[in-house]
Amino acid sequence: MSATKIIHSVPSDPLTGSIAVPVYQTSTFIQEAPGVNKGFDYARSNNPTRKALEDIVANLEGGHSGFAFATGLAAIDSVLKLLASGDEIIAVDDIYGGAYRLFTHVYEKLGIKVKYVDTTDVENLAHEVTSKTKLIWIESPTNPTLKVSDIVAISKIAKSVDAWLVVDNTFASPIGQRPIELGADIVIHSGTKYIGGHSDLVAGLVVTKTEALSEKIKFIQNASGGILGPWDCFLTIRGIETLDIRFRKQCENALEVAHYLERHPLIGKVFYPGLEGHKNHDIAREQQNGLFGGIVSFVLKDDTQEAANAFVTNTKYFKLAESLGGVKSLLCHPAQMTHASIPRAKRLSSGISDSLIRLSCGIENAIDLVSDLEHTFNIVNQHKNAVIA
Length: 389
Ligand SMILES: *Cc1c(COP(=O)(O)O)cnc(C)c1O
Fold this sequence. Notes:
Layout (H helix, E strand, L loop, with lengths): L2 H6 L39 H14 L3 E5 L2 H9 L7 E5 L4 H11 L5 E5 L4 H7 L4 E7 L11 H10 L3 E5 L4 H4 L9 E5 L13 E5 L2 H14 L5 H12 L1 H20 L4 E5 L9 H7 L7 E6 L4 H8 L6 E2 L9 E3 L11 H6 L7 E4 L5 H23 L1
Parallel strand pairs: 2-3, 2-4, 4-5, 5-6, 10-11
Antiparallel strand pairs: 1-7, 6-7, 8-9, 9-12, 11-12
Helix pairs in contact: 2-9, 3-4
This protein binds pyridoxal-5'-phosphate.
């Protein structure tokens, strides 16, 4: 979808001509007679500011309907509520830590079985699906090892067993990738990340492909009530207006950073779908519209938590914080931060080694981001040499 179309999908207010979407800060709506209203009755069920955001997001992802939730995890939770005890989920092994925690500690207790599979090879998935598989849950690229899975191929496997394919599209953003066009049934986003884009809110989004799925999620949204408030809907809409230009700049910066890291002598491995050596580089190029994302992860040669700690506490522009996708660059150490809830053995088996560091490139000048990393490597190296001497 073009930047023009995205910007002009944000409606102006027909009542006043306000070019920005008004914030309807209200809990209820006056009715002319019981049940006779202007399309809104109570703000959990619907709110005009939220509706504007939901329509914009449905359009952005090419789906039937959009739904806005309080956080990305509330959005994920609403999708899991489509399931019943006895159903099975097959999820990508390198899944977001919070999703893993929700699956394992909430939904497995309720009788839902989850199998984790390396979905970067479609055959792995083909072997695991059964008639009980109701959801196939992937992220592409994944967090934080940037694994890429073939959405078109996986959607065919999902169809063959009548399961829904859910794609967490947070990392690619709708600018890079539109999973519904590639065969997904449901797309979810942590709106906290690229879509919001300014590290000033938390939000979650669900987009459904069919009317039947829209009705189910609408019911769950109203029944469970984890909606996004009007002010945060407004901020999310404001973020979407600049999503295209921000995301392209972030991808450009990340590619430069990845190329720099790849050549650095203190680096053990770089994870970035835009590098030719990446396992599914060609699939990423195809399904992400040539935009490989703003996240780059790397492992140090000295693959220890101590080395990672020394690195992440010495950068200047890359601020040490959870989250990603904002205009300011961030970095984090997943093993101690975002992925601390995943047991170490499981972390290691999905490639999150002790020194893995995740960078979220913002929209600063690439040259400054690279020199920040260069400067940090020099500090860490001097410190190490001093210790050895
Ligand atoms: C952050 C994130 C989530 C969770 O979103 P919140 O808004 O933090 O609840 C889910 N999936 C991915 C890939 C994420 O990065």
